[in-house]
Amino acid sequence: MLCYNGITLQKKNIGLDLLRVWLSFEVVVDHFWHQNGLTGFWDFLSQMRSLAVPCFLLTSFYLTANRYATSDGAWLKRRFSRLFVPYFVWPIVYFILVLSCSALSETFVRTTVGMTEFKHYGFDLALDGWDLVRQWAFGIDRRLVHQFWFHSNMIFWTAGLFLLLKCVVRPKARVALLAGCAMFGLVMQYSGANTFLFDRLCFEFKYSAGRLLATLPYAAIALLVGLQRKRVDESGSATRAIFAAVGLFLLFFVHYSGGFPRPEGLGYQGVSLLLMALGTVAFFYCLPFDRAPAAVGAAISWVSKFCMGIYCCHLAVGWVLHAWLFPRIGVGFESLAACCWIWGVSWLVCLVVWLVPVRLVKSLVE
Question: What is the span of the domain harbouring residue 244?
């Protein structure tokens, strides 16, 4: 028996572990690599940053789908504990880091506010206690951390969809409910209603609550497919190879054809991104890693162990490295080399945190 994201599984899917490693690097790319005029593979690598959050959503809800249909409140409590600990603790770490580094170093302030997100919105680092309160309330604060809106959306839809599915007993009704949720989210996106409701609100509310209807289709469709996971896992090698090929085709076809028109929104909206994420997850999920040497699978699983931790800590690591290390060793500002350094150092930070023999501390990075 193996454990994946707190869920007991009969067999670990190494393809998804490999996908998580790639996606964790794409998260770093999204925040620290901004180049124009890229072509070929480098352009593809840059463009795929937009798939990180959609694929994380799909894999998370897909792997837990049967829990929503069969588990009781005890599982929900355990699930929340895995989401709440990093959601509430990491902002404290960032708060202390920014306050102390800003007081000690003008270089830290200058380089950090020069990063793309701070520079784009014109935010500074003049923190006060309300920044931490807003961070906890919405998962995002203009002067603190921006990526934990993902956790706030995960918490909301984990509770909401769990309660909805527990109220519906018949399997066919569950299918209709999830399909309806996905359609509702897409209709709200393409009609412009979601943007109309949230675009004029404050930054924190806009980019947290305003993305709920963008993330709903990913969660609903992942649960819908995940309820059939047993059939997928029991399919033969030829069928899985077809699934992988179709997924890869879907990813490249939508990406290079331009796909469907993307509606205005607050991020992660549109059918094209949904289809590309589905294709990506299908491809990696069906890769035949069961035929690979056990050492290969073990190595990939070990590297992927801290992908959530990298998601949580990479901004802090990137700010510190850009301020004090990169200028001394000749690594370019917000370059691809910087992203590689940030990912690697973030993984090592997670390893050090994980080695602390306290379960609560380990849960910050697992």
Answer: 2-362
